[in-house]
Design a protein that fits this description.
The complex is a heterodimer of chains A (86) and B (152). With 86 residues, chain A is of the alpha+beta class. Chain A has four helices and three strands. In chain B, α3 packs parallel to α5. The chains are: A alpha+beta (86), B alpha+beta (152). The interface between A and B is medium-sized, with 13 and 14 residues.
Chain lengths: 86, 152
């Protein structure tokens, strides 16, 4: 199954209890499947950056095999609220 | 985890049929089968040999990818010019081996004191939050940005 923005979004919501997900397909800018994602999840609470990113990587392990480039931003709901206010 | 080892084992079997590639000007470590246990140990040595180690696409003088370039630029901003950079485009074994080693799917990959820090996203966020200055200090590296602030 081809990796799509929707597939990524659904997985993040169902497996990481993401309360907000933004998936940007950046493939047109590059030569192969590339995505940029913003994930807001309470599961990131108390976890350092690397651990958060590893959580996402594990969740999307199968998809990442097909993807060429992947950017991610991981925020807790509190950080997301703060960012929105800026 | 089984699938990772399975894939690594399969690639080792496949690669053993190919002629060994020698790395011009590079260390002997790069030419070994880096997905094997022996290869993974070479990687361990590579990341511990220098305080700051970057696996990237291209070289610091000529990055071949936007994310690798971002890492180079950030390090440059902090005055970190003396680091080990390995070009994964020169060596497919290295390209796959380092992903297995750090259990991280993408390049670039940054290591501080032998420990995996993250890729471009993480380094950028550390830079923006000020954490990078702190981490460099732990390595005994004084960030150039600290001096830049003083001048203002």
């Amino acid at each position: 199954m081809a990796v799509t923005a929707d597939l990524i979004r659904e997985k993040l919501i169902s497996e990481l209890a993401a309360v907000h997900v933004e998936v940007e397909d950046t493939s047109p800018n590059r030569c192969a499947a590339s995505f940029k994602v913003l994930i807001v999840s309470p599961q990131f609470e108390g976890k350092p950056l690397l651990q958060r990113h590893r959580l996402v990587n594990t969740c999307l392990a199968n998809e990442l095999k097909e993807i060429h480039a992947f950017e991610q931003k991981t925020l807790t709901p509190e950080q997301w609220e703060k960012q929105k206010q800026q | 985890m089984n699938s990772v080892f399975g894939a690594a084992a399969r690639s080792v079997r496949a690669l053993s049929a190919l002629p060994r590639l020698t790395q011009p000007g590079g260390g002997a470590a790069c030419s070994r089968l880096l997905c094997s246990a022996e290869g993974q140990k070479s990687l361990e040595e590579m990341v511990k040999k220098d305080k700051v180690v970057v696996f990237m696409k291209g070289t610091p003088a000529q990055p071949m990818c936007g994310f690798s370039n971002a890492v180079v630029q950030i390090l440059r901003m902090h005055g970190v010019d003396n680091y080990a950079a390995y070009n994964v485009l020169d060596d497919q074994d290295l390209r796959q081996g380092v992903k297995t080693f750090s259990n991280w799917p993408t390049i670039p990959q940054v290591f501080f004191n032998g420990e995996f820090v993250g890729g471009c996203d993480i380094l950028l966020q550390m830079h923006q939050s000020g954490d990078l200055v702190e981490e460099l200090e732990k390595l005994g590296i004084r960030s150039a940005l600290l001096d830049a602030e003083k001048e203002q």
